[in-house]
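Dear colleague,

Following up on yesterday's call, I've attached the two folding results inline so they're easy to grep. Please treat them as preliminary; we haven't cross-checked anything against experimental data yet. The first protein's sequence and structure tokens come first.
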Amino acid sequence: MRLLKNLIFPFSAIVGQENVKKSLVLNAINPSIGGVLIKGDKGTGKTTAVRALADLLPPIKVVKGCPFNCDPEDNDSLCDFCKSEDHEIEEKKMRVVELPLGATEDRVVGSINLEKALREGTRALEPGILAEANRNILYVDEINLLDDNLVDVLLDAAAYGVNIVEREGISLAHPSNFILVGTMNPAEGELRPQLSDRIGMHISVQSLLDLKDRVQIMARREEFEQDPVMFRDKYQEQQDQMLSGIIHARDILDKVQVNREMMELIARISLEMGVDGHRADIAILKTAKTIAAYQNQDEVNFQHVEEAALLVLGERFHKQSCDQNQIKKKVEQAQNQMQEEKKEEKTSKGQQETKSQAQNQQTNFSSEESHGKQKGMQLKSNTEEDQPVSSEEEGVDIKKLLKMKGKKKKRLYGRSVDSKTEKGRYIKSSLPKKNSRDVAIDATLRAAALHSKGIIDVKTDDIRQKVRKHGAKASIAVVVDISGSMVSENKANRVKDILDSIIQDTNRHQDKISVIGFKGKKAEIIVPTTKRASSFQDVIDKITVGGTTPLASGMKKGMEILKKENKRGEFIPFMVILTDGMPNVGIDRGPIPDALKIAEELQKNEILTIVINFEQTARYGRDMNMELAMASGGRYYDVQELENPGNAVAQILEFERENSES
């Protein structure tokens, strides 16, 4: 029978993915960097690398029998149990502790030990995932899909290095310091900013495109699976060298010096990149020191800072990545600015020595002016804020596009919402508000165990119900005007630009989408309800405009689709009406009355609605779009004057997510 250890692929045998391996090693040397967030597709070796690192690292000394892996050499971090009595010391191998997306809060934080409560009648803690993770690696796959309550727990532990447990009469705190490794696919949604900011390094990983590398991956995997013991022996020398390098780097890390010039360079890079806050600066500093230690150098240089900036800032910004060349350019710009300012300062000092006191007053003024430049990249930022907003940033002033605010809405989007059914992930338990069949057995038994001895005696007051959550996804029906009220190639391009942007947005948030176009005498379904609208890209590209404007027909077809979604109860129905507000074909009573009647039905059926005007037309004193928004109880936006409305519409949807209420 093979030992489990021998089934772990050697870290030194992993092909490619240098940034992943480097970031993991640096965090192993210096956990205070703050972990690493790896963005990319599945199947690129992320989990293999994390497990291989844990297997490579030396064992840790722990207090024997301590469920929290307390460090016997750090008295300040010992738990109450370890402080209260003498203890033995043992060595443990570092572990990879996984935090699954479906974990309950009790499982993560810890809860009452049911067995001890029944046998001994005592209230003792059953350690959770955060206890197991102390001084180990905490691995969260698809961390961007983690429920908000678990993100809050992670934030607290990451901020203080302590997990506080207050459950069923238990109040306890224990150390929880871990190397956090999270993975995510950005197409499935962004990570909550508070947690993203806490993670030190942000890198991306892609499938290897070099043919030789791909062949080598297959060959090594095949060799490993045929004889893992022999394969590990083959790479043992490289493993030992890496381990020695890590241990040596840990030993000399505190001796690595960083001069003020390097600190100023780091600050300038962060300001130039538009970084918010100071955590990124500190992460770059710590990473640069760790790189120097790993390279057996006692002082941080420009190359260390450049390499650290790439690992910390390369993937830190939403919708913007920076490759090695871009980071190198920013570092060079910062270096050049520093050198120029030094020359100016040197020249200024020379003038002070040679000129008279009256001239020195003028020189001092110049020096102060130069010093003002040196202090402040912030002055540059303020100036930039006063400049006109580019077309890509038009959504920054999204509230200016909002012409009418509708009534308060149910929460449309978000990472999760409370489930009203028995569907969704079981997050935690609560006292039942009414008769519920969705009983939380574990929480009920724990509550009963507090007053039971031997056989559990469950009473009515012990009953707990499950609190479930599910992703708040929407089924979006885009009703778009493709009539010829303004026939032009420009209109067709604007329609395609908006639809492309909406499709990308729904893909990222895992929403459903259907596209209904109206022109001529009726409406047509361009894209049927789907989660994979990108597969209909060729249909979008072939859209043509022309003909009359049967707005009511388009709204009616969209409403029929969304009413079906409303009955299922799994997706929130949401209609986006893209029109210039000039209907000229009706169904029964006339173009305008028919459209307003359907808008009223949208409100009655609780279908969330926004109206977006994207074409310039003469209104003749009447704003039909405003009337549609009022009748449907929705919001009205006007993007007709924007050069690139697609970007703005995507930000309108984001605004709707952030400003809808539960």
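Below is the second protein, in the same order (sequence, then structure):
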Amino acid sequence: MDITFCPGFHLPDDRGRTVQLYRELGAKSVQLYIDWKQVEPKSGQYDWSAYDRDAEALASAGLKLGPFIICGSWYVTPQFVRDEPGMVMYRCVEHERDTAMPSLWCPNIRPHIERFLHALAEHFGSSGALGYVLLGPTGDYGEALYPIVGNGPGAYHGHPGHWCADPLALADLRRWAAMQYEDIRQLNASWGTNWGAFDELKPFTRRHAPSERAYVEMIRWYRQSMTRFCDFWLEAARSAFGGLPPIVVEGKPPTWIGGLPIYLCTGGLMLPEHGSDFSAQVRAAADHGAGVRVTNESSDYASNFMLTRLVNSAARGYGGFSSHEPAATVTPKGVVARVFNGIAGGCAQLFSYPGAYIEGDKISSGGEVLKRLRPLLRKRSPVVPVALFYPDTDRVLSGEVPFDRFHLALRKLLDFDLIDENMIWDDLLARYRYLVVAGAERMAQETTGKISSWVKSGGVLLNVSCLISDFQENAALWQELIGFTAETDRHYGVMEQVILRPELLPRYQKLLPLWATASYGPLAADCLPLVGMRGSWYEPVAEYSRLAWQRKVGKGVVISYFGLIDPHSGHGGWATSDAAALTFLADVLDHAGELGLPPIQVGGLPGEAPTTLRPEMDGLYLSQFEDGLLAMNFADTPLAITFEGKTITIGPDDIVELS
């Protein structure tokens, strides 16, 4: 795995001491931000001298240069580019004010991007100085994002919002809408609007959206516009730097034939205003033999995992590669989290800012952690048979991060990939044996249909308290899949749970007494009950109303769980606990064979194949590979694991290879 550091625009002037520290930490390359306005103060007049000195210093230490090429962001873009006649800037919907960054819809910016990419490639390409290239398409800092927080307070108008009100963006939205709908009447019926013609369309904020569907579809266009711009960047970069796409072999580093590794820089939380669509950007990058670096890590492992795993999952699914970058301070404990997250995600590169590893002219405690774990840093291909549905539509509608305690705590139970609707539409669900759906309310009918077909062909759907509908509040497809009939009712009230198959749910049994607020019945005749409700005054209903059940669908299985309340839980409030649901899943996966489910074990190891299932959920995280497990103890005390008949104790903040 490539280890790379970035000190900023240039190397520090310390006679190469910091560069030697990079080498000691295991770096193969050093990234530098390329200051476009410094290099090209006037159109076509280049001064590379400062970067030549940097490249020479790196070469003398046996290191490569990784240029971060940003075109459009305010802090690097030359004034002559912004002043060019016809250059259109982003304009926000909220205030109808321009920012100081060229709009991605403006064709005038594209020749400048192509010219600068080719100029850099021609200057450094033949020297062998470059180790990789990072592309910064737009946004405040050079990520594949619209303006969000501003860069240089007061320098330009900036805020989180919808940056698609400039004339070129308006024209593109109207063209896009006309391609989606036969006529304006059809669009009005779908969106709940009354426009007289497509030329009247204007973008809107979430608050002023005429309907849920209208906002989701507008954001789809907004994101697709960003992805198309990224595609232009990737094609221009591949043209400039040449070479064939990389050969990506599972478990081995990417091999580039005559070309450089190219990464597209993206980031943020994939909120609708950001405009980033991680899986679509990964797919675009993979189509050009490139990868994606996502810039949103911190020092907490569970948060890092949830923020980066969609990029990692898509990269492995589409045949690309990935890298992570921190967006916050990284502590020594956070170094452990980042190393494990990079390996377990199958990353090709570990990027870092040096502040977490170097203090003054010495390697800090964080750097010592990296040196200790460095032998583990190689690109590997994780074995992940379980996917969690990424509820992107709900995120678009709420404007919030959709991951609650359950999603974060699920990683303590086992390793999983994230899969969104893009990936499901591209049939990447076939890569997995299990799909967990939790915390989702909205899903396109096409997605529900794809999941249903996948189950019928042998997949296992683990449905955790979800009754999903489309934009028309139609839940029939989902309800049929999980076993509802026309007679099924929701029975509401605080009811005590009864475990009907205690031999299959031993851990769940130990949590009793448990309660729930709703049960469902009567269910389809082919539903096998797992958890029911106690009688008392619910006696007639208790005969057929269920909290958890199993249903055979074609060659696959659907298991639904709606029992939520665990008063003993330390995971949350009395009525919002996730501990009971996680324990239920632990029992289901641990007794997969007895339930007629496919094994969660994957791999060719002798004896019983290992899994990442950790029912103790105690802070020991596992990742599976073809040749064994990688275990990280993120707790503050030693933890033990049994592997191939041996008990192995792992100290706090340590990573151990079990093979």
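For the second protein, one point worth flagging: Residues 620-658 form one domain.

Best wishes,
A.L.
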